[in-house]
Amino acid sequence: MDNIGFFVLNTFLFCTCSASPPNFVLLFADDLGFGDLSCYGHPSSLTPNLDRLAAGGLRFTDFYCTSPVCSPSRASLLTGRYQTRSGIYPGVLYPGSRGGLPLNETTIAEVLKPMGYATAAIGKWHLGVGANGMFLPTRQGFDHYLGIPYSHDMHTHYPQYAGQGAAGRTLRGPFGDALFEFDNTIGNLLTTLEKTGVTNNTLVFFTSDNGPELMRLSRGGNAGPLKCGKGTTYEGGMREPAIAFWPGTIRPGVTHEMASTLDILPTIASLAGAKLPQVMLDGVDMTEILVNQEKSKRETMVFYPTDPAEKYGLFALRLGKYKAHFYTQGATHSGTTPDQDCPVFAVLKAHDPPLIFDLEADPSEHYPLPLTGKPDLQALLERIKKVKEQFEASMVFGESQISKGTDPDLEPCCNPQCSPKPGCCKC
Predict the structure, then answer these.
(1) Main-chain dihedrals φ then ψ at residue 53, nearest 5 degrees
(2) Three-state DSSP class for 386?
(3) Is residue 328 in some structural domain?
(4) Which residues pair with 303 in a beta bridge?
(5) Neighbour tally for 301: CB within 10 Å
(6) Cβ-contact 355, 242 below 8 angstroms
(7) Do 219 and 160 contact (CB within 8 A), yes or no?
(8) Considering 15, 17, 65, 70, which one is annotated as catalytic?
(9) What sign does the dihedral 217-356-65-391 (CA atoms) show?
(10) Could you tell me the CATH number of the domain that includes residue 39?
(11) Rounded-to-integer distance, Cα 220 and Cα 174, Å
(12) What does the pLDDT average to over 135-139?
């Protein structure tokens, strides 16, 4: 069997399935919050297979996606580059979008193909379709693709679906049932790896694309102790559950080291002995965290809003255990919570000096540190400003793919010759 790469739910599957090099299975959930899994403390979620991965693998407490909404987050995962570089902003792509992930961007699949890997993407793509399917996964290095190319309600994304084996099986209602359905899928995947004898030669990595859609109440997911959720640059919008599982290679444990979806491409490339793309990468190799549970090479994480613009630059920046907010803004996705900073009514607000939080002492971002009369914090602020300035100087915004607009004729249609579109495509 050839090498495998697997993208479930999104599942990305990258596989050699020979004695070496390793296989990679990347599981990317949708709208799943930091507090949604039982292994992350939720009292009524039923996730035995994810719990099994967490118990036998490495569980992250400080793992970030790059955007609080889907398309840009997925672009960064696949390319190891912030979405602002590839042009997947503002917001998300739609079924009829003219744009998509640019073909000159190099995906994980394209990094692995020269090494003899077979690659597959399964589930939600949400990075464009385009004329003649030019932006689909099979044009981005994947040998096979089975799934929906745009966003529509997959698994824990609202509205949830649970099949016969999961519906009504949990204490948590429709969201919990959908999460159990997802967990069952992961269980089937793990069983297949075991039956084919490749478990000990396969890295399984699980995380989520953005925080929970709190506007959906109990059907929108849970951010645990973190502030706000989807659509915001608070921790609840972009800090995610993450688990790395590789029996015999990754020791069971918990890491508090900072890491990101950006780091997955360079890590996989390193483990496979593949060459990195000759472009500006924002990810770092986290092999030492996974294999030896050593310190992270990542000292900084930056936070862009759903509609990034050069005029504003970064909304927030994390340096070590400290996070500085230069701008804050609520989002429709995070409505209904008692916290007045979360809903769309919390309009854009600039902070000069920025709000600074100690995320180890205050992961909920409730208590900004007092800067007045604190020389050590003033020195920290100057360092944060310098890091921000250096990063923004390195950022070249790519042409916005989402601003190219939509064309109903580009929407996937089950009855391609019908008229008028898109209404006639609803079969």
Answers:
(1) -65, -45
(2) helix
(3) no
(4) 316
(5) 22
(6) no
(7) yes
(8) 70
(9) positive
(10) 3.40.720.10
(11) 10
(12) 96
Residue among 42, 126, 325, 333 flagged as catalytic = 126
Q: Which are the contacts of 237, defined by CB distance < 8 A and separation ≥ 6?
A: 68, 210, 211, 228, 229, 230, 231, 331, 334
Q: Is 126 a catalytic residue?
A: yes
Is the four-CA dihedral 153, 301, 239, 6 of positive or negative sign? Answer: positive
| Domain span including residue 249 | 4-310+398-425
Q: What is the mean predicted confidence (pLDDT) over 307-326? A: 97
Which residues are CB-contacts of 136 (< 8 A; sequence separation ≥ 6)?
Answer: 125, 128, 129, 130, 145, 149
Give the number of other CB atoms < 10 A from CB of residue 173: 13
- φ, ψ (nearest 5 deg) of residue 397: -70, 125
Q: How many domains does the chain have?
A: 1
CA 350-280-149 angle, to 5 degrees, is 80
SS3 (DSSP) at 9:
strand
User: Which pair of tokens denotes residue 279?
Assistant: 């472009």
7 or 228, which is more confident? 228
Which residue in 261, 206, 267 sits closest to 238, CA to CA?
Answer: 261
Q: Of 221, 285, 248, nearest to 34 (Cα)?
A: 221
Strands (E) in 73-113, as ranges, are none
Q: Is residue 135 part of a domain?
A: yes
Tell me what the pLDDT averaged over the chain comes to.
Answer: 92
Residue type, 40: Y
Question: Domain for residue 337, yes or no?
Answer: no
Q: Please indicate, yes or no, if residue 214 is contained in any of the structural domains.
A: yes
pLDDT higher than threshold 80 for residue 12: no
Active-site annotation holds for 424 = no
